[in-house]
Amino acid sequence: MSELTKVDNTSLTTSNAMISVIERAAINPDVDMDKMERLLAMQERIFAKNAEIAFNQAMSEVQREVPQIKKRNTNQQTRSTFARLEDINKELTPVYTAHGFALSFGTADSTTEGWIRTTCKVTHTEGHSKDFFVDLPVDDEGAKGNVNKTKMHGAGSTMSYARRYLTLLIFNIALTDEDNDGNVSSTSIIDRMFVHNVAVRENLQSILAIKDGIFDKDYSTTREAWKELSKETMEALWLAPTKGGIFTTYEIKRLKMSEREWDEAQ
């Protein structure tokens, strides 16, 4: 038995003892009603805490037991592999449902105009739940920016991608050969956006230095920070601001300057 489980079991024993005290007080006619209300509120907090403990323990068990999910499908255009939502659900659903979890997906208004917010409520049989969401642009463009889907088809594709990635994020699942899935030339703008977001998260300090350098017209600092990035990272960051890219159109123009233009600007 792990130390975490020992601590949680002790907490549950203490909680059960407190509930027993409240139950005895409830049948005592001499108990003050105001005190009774406070005791009942305390009981609700205890129930909620116990439910949260059960949720976290079950989540730990799911992550311990989840099988390795392989990418069985190939994108012929980009020569990259990926796992379909159906493959992920086939491997993962029996595990998380066995531990009392259920996922409920929906949509809501996105704070970014023209994007789609996909929501997911993760509930557990003990009563605790958590809410997750992701905002994505409509997946209606190909690798070269040409429209390749109707709006309805693009919206459906977006929600499918969102469900796929939310499921992976909720249970902290890494696909096999995951590094190879980050092909920025993928036909899906959503795949490119996720690759971009990973690059931003892993290189945030350099990106902030680049943006500050451009703002201050300190192109020496800008160039130094930019050239510290790998070629793969640079390619991942080439995402238009209209698709959620970290750099503005003006900043992208400055970053694409030649060596001679760098020197002249400085």
Percent of residues in beta strands:
5-15%
Shape: elongated
Overall average residue pLDDT: 75
Integer-rounded radius of gyration? 25 Å
The CATH class name of the largest domain reads Alpha Beta
Strand tally: 5
Number of helices: 10
CATH architecture of the largest domain: 2-Layer Sandwich
Show unreliable segments: 1-8, 178-187
Please estimate the helix content.
55-70%
Name the structural class.
Answer: alpha+beta
The secondary-structure element order is HHEEHEEEHHHHHHH
CATH topology call of the largest domain: Double Stranded RNA Binding Domain
If strands are numbered along the chain, what order do they take across the biggest sheet?
3-4-5
Largest sheet: 3 strands, antiparallel
Kindly, what is the distance between the CA atoms of the first and last residues, rounded to a whole number of angstroms?
Answer: 63 Å
Number of domains: 3
Description:
- There is one protein chain.
- A hairpin with a 4-residue loop joins β1 and β2.
- The chain has helices spanning 3-26, 33-65, 85-98, 151-170, 189-202, 204-215, 219-227, 231-237, 249-255, 259-265; strands at 73-75, 80-82, 101-108, 115-124, 129-137.
- The chain folds into 3 domains: 3-65; 73-179, Double Stranded RNA Binding Domain, CATH 3.30.160; 203-265, no CATH class.
- α1 (3-26) packs antiparallel against α2 (33-65) and α6 (204-215) runs antiparallel to α7.
- It is α+β, with helices and mostly antiparallel strands.
